[in-house]
Every structure is written in structure tokens, then in C-alpha cells.
Amino acid sequence: MRRRTFLAVAGVTAAALAVPAQASATGHPFRNPGLPLRSRVEDLLTRLTLPEKVSLLHQYQPAIPRLGMAMFKTGTEALHGVAWSTDITSTPDPGAVRTAVATVFPQAVGLASTWDPALIRRVGSVVGDEIRGYHSDNPVVWGLNAWAPVVNLLRDPRWGRNEEGYSEDAYLTGVIATAYAGGMAGDDPRHLKTAPTLKHYLANNNEIRRDRTSSNLPPRVRKEYYEVPFRAPIAAGAATGVMAAYNLVNGRPATVLPDFDDVVRTWTDQVLMNVTDAGNPNNLIGSQAYFDTLAQADAATLKAGLDSFTVDNTNAGPTIDAVNAALAQGLLAESDVDSAVRHILTIRFRLGEFDPGGGPYGGITMDVVNSPAHRRLARETAGRAVVLLKNDGALPLRPAGTVAVVGPLADTLYTDWYSGRLPYVVTPRAGIAERVTVTGGEAVDRIALRTTDGRYVTASTAADGAPLTVGGSAAGEAQRFDVFDWGQGVVTLRSVANGKYVERDGFGATSGFVNRAPQPRDWFVHQQFTFEDAGGGTVVVRYVGYETVNDWEGPNNYLTVAPDGGLLLGSPDAAGATPFVKETISSGIAEAVAAAEGADAAVVVVGSMPFINGREDHDRTTMALAESQSALVRAVHAANPNTVVVVENSYPTTLTWEQDNVPAILWTTHAGQETGHAVADVLFGDVNPAGRLTQTWYRRDADLPDILEYDIIKARRTYQYFEGDPLYPFGHGLSYSTFRYGGPGVASQGPLTTESALEVSVPVTNTSDRAGDEVVQLYTHQRESRDPRPDRTLRAFQRVHLLPGQTRTVRFSVPVRDLAHWDVTRGRWVVEGGTYDVLVGASCADIRQRGSVRVRGETIPARNLSRTTRAVDFDDYADVSLVDTSKARGDSVGGPGWVSFHDSELRRARSFTARVAGAGTIEVRLGGPAGRLLGTATSPGTADKYTYTSVAAALTGADGRHDVYLVLTGELRVDTFTIR
């Protein structure tokens, strides 16, 4: 979901949108809850006129008074608690974001770090209850269609939205997503508490040019990896639809992927309601330039299987006009509209809208929001999500003495773009201070900025701040600012005068600055600056809020002082900026060192600011701590060897020095209002840590390929394929307890078949004097295969609680069919026969017990290229791109480059034919891209990239079993080919 520029609802008042059911409609069959759901839906559908049906395709579905239908809106954000929605009733800004004050749980990646599906289902249920509570208060603002969870796989930790997903592992993501969505949906077999929508289909894991980049997905990667986390919650009936992503997939915008009908709806017998992401239909004629007219774009979107258009904010007019135009032009039939509306109405019926009292969940009120029970669950979840990365005996801390609590995150809790507002705040310092005497501060520098003629930047003491001026002659409190360093030179400035952050005051080329923001915030994050050396002991200040240079803003992004003393953006470059002397009033590191030297232990709280260190629309360029934070850790550790580092951020971090030198390291996400209690609970041992990493933590940024590389098999990405030495492996996490694993028992009599299950049992014993949880993880590895297979694959896990000395036998059952992989030679799933290693341990790298099992499966035969073969079903490739065969469906291979087809039976083949578009050649070679040439087919060119023709070549010397290579030159697209 992107930022919105809001418009009024075209021709419809807010009051009309919320019209209650009229008495005249109560007698219709669709109002009878005793009838089958399908009958009720069809009855209502037949009563709607075509214009009424078309009006329901927009996100803001208007009220239809004659049938007693109220307004219905898709999209309440709820990734880790009720976050925000849009308020079309607000004045003077209809459609402004309304953020909920609700229970805020750990960010999604933190929820998954619990490895506890039962707990996450409870969290999802609470979120569903609180959405219902808000809905009861204002159904126009707070809709029951929830846009959560995000199931995009975290294959690259630099993704700006890493905190929104669960894991780099498809299976784990699917399990946690099913739990969260299932809790949100509720347990009633016929009704929904809320309607969860999975985001963002498909392969959406970069923000750079996110609406223009294409995720290249060979079939195996697509089937085995990227589809899996969407399939699991849909197949389980936990989610009620998917949202289309911004990116393209194999050259086709995700908004018009045929998958929504052809794939996603095949996973379930339930009716799904699929939606576009904000603005996406318009992207088809805008940044993506895929269609010429909105009528074509909207028609293609509906035909692809999307039902609701999230576009033009509250203004449904363009969508209605485009769909009507598509109907008039024959691009759509009324039956296409009916299909989408049928899906929409089915979800609305399941939500209880047309039942007396709103169905079984209709009685939930605002009383549930931030209830004591929900607060307790927030604390429990935050504690269970904490991961102990390292502990050389420094933890748990003794609940006595003095602890220096220092660091830029010690006294603050941050929220993210998809957080609700915290109902209360327990910071790390506050949580620790409930147990021991604490000293220290935020460990940030306090500075003043003085012009070369002796004037100081001055802030207001008013609670809401005022425009900054330059004119004070001394560095009093009004002239002082605390500098928070977020890395790579980016800082935020908090005014000492009123405790608020300095931010740009609106837009425009001459906008000033005001100390007004409670935290860095909002879409453009107008609180970001850098100091650049200007020589002679001076600096210039550059404003680096997101999207600083736009046609509507002007080119200036350096601060200057106006003649009247105002501080504004007055220069496009450093040469024209006002130089300042940056006076350091106090050193944050010096104060932290002083506190640490006199303490029994030091806790350094470092991490990220979720609106700055990567977020929607902005990827990270490094996984490192901010430079000043790293320096702080080193200085405090030198002053007090008994130093614990608490890292509070949303992604893997390159903590190589810290791992080598600091005795203990904890990691938590931004974990909501109970973060401080959770951190203290773990530090002092009231909670025995058992969170586990859901991503590989790398040692250096260079361990990762380009962020746009989506083929995890070829690029050797994630724990399944990574060949390097990670800092912390997938599944890693320590405990204050120790555990012994007994030998695994594999319950099988002879080879397993595809109709049986892999049954594994392993006794686990708590060998310590402290009760604790162990996350027992089951992996498999296929020893022999025609295709490259993962080093290991997570198949099951259990988080088990064990008392001191207690032994528990952990049992797993994995259907053998789940060991299948996608066979590109035949376009189907296959379980290959052979030996499979069974690996049980505490992480993917900490395997405690091993076994093996024989599986009686298939042997993939030699390729038969005499049958029509899709070029995209290759075994290997280099340099080619994957492209759309047509705008409607199909994937092709685009040159130049090469693709290979291994172990192909040629049988004295004499001819090669291919269906191609564009101009270029195809060389048919054996053994390699420079191997023996059998023949060359040439295409002189076609009318355009979607116009295909047949090309052919005679082959010589083609016999036996070989690896066949097709070497493409020119701008050629290859759809299918045969060798006979």
C-alpha cells in the first residue's frame, strides 16, 4: 500500500455511504440467514442493476439504500495490530489517514520469531477483535476487510519492508501466516470475524523502482518458493483473498497476472475476493505503460481475477467510467462484472453484514481495544519473540546493583508505517528500572549550530513548536539539539526546547523548519538531515527527507538563512548553503562511558528508526549499525566488559565485531508498547529466551547478490542454498537452558511411498536447572536428484516447554508428497525416489541428530524435446530475461543469452522449429553454449514483440542423450520449440 493523495468521493456523501438497512429490504431472501450462502448471494446479485454492480468494484463501495445495503470499504491495515484506515468523513481532508490507538504487537518478523503458531493465532484473534471494536464505533472508517498478513518472502534483508514479512523460508511463512490470518478470521464455520487479505502477490521483495522492475521467476522457483506462502493460508481457509503487488513478474504487471483465477483460486473451494494495491490499475497506463486506455487496463484486471479496485483514493468515478467503457467496447461482458461482484458479496455475507445483529461477531465493541488481557498478550508475545544471539555468561542479569542503560533507543519506542498508535509506552529503560537502579542516558550528542557571524539556530519552547530562526547570541536550551544518527550520515535533530523533532514545514521551494514532530514520521519523513563538511571548521546542512526534489517542491535542499533570520531551503547545492559551526555541548559517548564505568553491568540499546532505515518505497543499502551506534558499543564495552547489547530493529544486521567481542547480544523487533517489559523480562531471566531467527544473518553486505536477483536457486540465496559462512544461521537462537537430543526414530517399514508420511520422533531433555523452551526443527535433504536441490529444507518444527530434567518426545509427521519438487520437464510436482536425510536440530546449522529414509518415488525420464516444449522450462540459463508471451498469459524467454535443457533424448533429430517474436537467431548446440553447433534458425523480425512466427532449422549430428543449449542473439523472444 502506498501513500495516498486524497480526493472526495465522487458524487456521494459520507452520510449516504453509511445508510442503514431499510425496512423494505428485510423481506428479501438474501436477508434470510437460514438459506445457503450461495442462494443468498445469487438473490442479492439478481436484484442489483448493472450500474450498481459496477459501483461495487471500487474500494469504496457505496450504500444502496433501496436494498438496505450500507457502504463497504476494503482495506484496514493490521499487520501487527490495528494500524490505520482512511476517513472519508474527515474535514477538510476527506480520505485522510486515521491511525488507531490499539494494542501494538511486535512487527511481523518478530511475530514469526516466536516460532509459535498457537500464540500467533491468539494474536491474530485479538487483532480481529479490535478491528471489530473499531468497526462498531465507525463502520465507515474501519472496514472488516483487513489487508494482512504480508507473506512476501524475505529472501533479501535489504528490502525496505523486511519488518512486514515473516521469514525467508516459504514453509515457516505459510505456517505463521495461516495462524495469524486464521485468528483474524475467527473460528465460526460460516462467518468471518474479519476478512484477511494476503499481500502482495507475487515475488515482491524490492522497493527500488517497484512498479517498473520485473521479478524473473523460472518455474521451479515460482512453484517451490514464491507461491508456497500464499497457498498455505488460502488452502487452509484462513485468508479470503490476495492483493496484487506493484512489480512485474516475468515482464507482466502483477495486476494482470492470470494467476488470480488460474492458480490462486484453485487452492481452495472457498470464494475469494482479490484486490489491487493502491493505484495499481492506473499504473498499467502510467509508469508501466502496459495498456493504452484505462478501459483496457481495468478490463484486463477484472479478467485476471481481481475483484476490487484500490485506486483514485475515494473517487470511484474513473473506475466506473473505465469499466462502463470496457463494457461498451466489448472488452468486458456483464458476466465478468457479475463474477467479481459475486466474490465481493460472498465475503460481505460471511462477515455477517446481512444477518440479524451482524452475525456472531456483530456484538464486539470498543471495550475490547487495549483491554488488560490484550496488554498481557502483547507482553507475552514480545517476550517470546526476543532472540538471544550470543551469551557468554553475562545473562541473565542479577536483579541487584546498578545497570547503565544507554543508547539512542533506550528511552524511546518507535512505530512503523503499518503500526497503530501505542496506547502506552514501556521503554527499555523503564522496564529495567522496575528491577534495578539505572543510570545513563540516550548517548547522543547535544549540539548547537552557530553561523560564522555568531548567531544561533533557535527553536520555540511551545509544545507544538514554531518556525526555527537564526538570531540567538548564546547556546541556551532553545539553541540546543540532540543528534540521533541513523547511519550513512543521516541524522534527526530533537529540540531541547520542547522535546520535538525538527521537520520541514510543509512543501514548496521556500518552506522553513519547525520543531513539531513527536518522532520521525509520515510518508516523506521530513525530519532527516545530513551535515556536510564545508571546510574551515564549518558544516552545511542538507535536508534529505524522502523525495526532496520534485517539480512541485523546487530544486533546493540545502539550508540557508533568510535576511529576516528565517531558516529555509534556499540553495540547490552546498556552495550556496549557509555555513554553520557545529558546537558540541555534550558528548553522548562520553556520558555513556561515565555511566558504564560505575555500573555493575551496561545495557546498550541500539537499532533502527523504522521510518528512516528502510521502509516502504525505500530499500536499505547496508545492514550495518549506524556508525555512531557501533562506536558507542565499542566505547561502552571498553569501559565495562560486562556489556549487553540489545539490538532493536527489523532486519538482519552485520554484527560481526559485536559477536566477536561483546559477551551477550539480544535482538528484538520494534515490539510495541510492551517492548521494555519484554526486554527486561529476558535480561533478568523471568522469561527464558526462545525466539529463533527466521532469516539468515550475514557477515557483510557483500554476501548478497543484487537486490533484483529473485532466482534463489541459481543465485544460492537463503539458508537453503547459501554457500558462505553466516553470522547467525536460519533458526538460530540461544536459551538460558541446555537441551540434549536423543536419537531420532524414523517410523517406516521399508521404503516410504508418496501415499505415506515421514514419521519422526526425537526425545529432547532439559539438562539444566531452569525451565525453558526449545524450538525443535526438522529438516530434510535429498541426496540424489536430477535437479539442484536445497542443502536442507525446513519441514516441521515445534516449540516445546520443558522443566528441569524433563524429557519429552517430539513427534513430526510429514506427508511424503510434501517432499516433491517441480519437474520442469513435465510441468508437474514429482517425488523422486532415493535416500532422504532426516536432520533434527536447534537451527539449520546446529543439527543434533541425523537419520535417513528411503522413498519409493519416480525417476524423471530423459527430456522428450520432440514434444512442444516451453522455452521457459529450461534447466539452466545465462543473461536471458523472462518475458510475457502475451499481455493475457504465458511466459517466454527473451534474448540475448542462452538456455539449456539437460538430459534430452534426441533420437536422430533432424529439425528444429520454434515459435518466436522479434528479430535474431537461435543456435542449437550440444554440451554448452559454445558446444557443437547443430543448426541455426533465423527470424528476420515480426511486427512487434507480441506477434509470433515460426522459424526452423535443419539439424546435423543430433542423436543420443545430451544437454541441449539454445543460444539466442538479438531481441528475440522464444515461446515454444521442438526438436524432431
TrEMBL record:
Residues 867-980 form the CBM6 domain. Keywords: Hydrolase, Signal. InterPro entries: BXL (IPR044993), CBM6 (IPR005084), Cellulose-bd_IV (IPR006584), Fn3-like (IPR026891), Galactose-bd-like_sf (IPR008979), GH (IPR017853), Glyco_hydro_3_C (IPR002772), Glyco_hydro_3_C_sf (IPR036881). GO terms for molecular function: hydrolase activity. Pfam families: CBM_6 (PF03422), Fn3-like (PF14310), Glyco_hydro_3 (PF00933), Glyco_hydro_3_C (PF01915). Residues 1-23 form the signal peptide. Gene3D superfamilies: 2.60.120.380, Galactose-binding domain-like, Glycoside hydrolase family 3 C-terminal domain, Glycoside hydrolase, family 3, N-terminal domain, Immunoglobulins. Belongs to the glycosyl hydrolase 3 family. This is Glycoside hydrolase family 3 C-terminal domain-containing protein. The lineage of its organism: Bacteria, Bacillati, Actinomycetota, Actinomycetes, Pseudonocardiales.
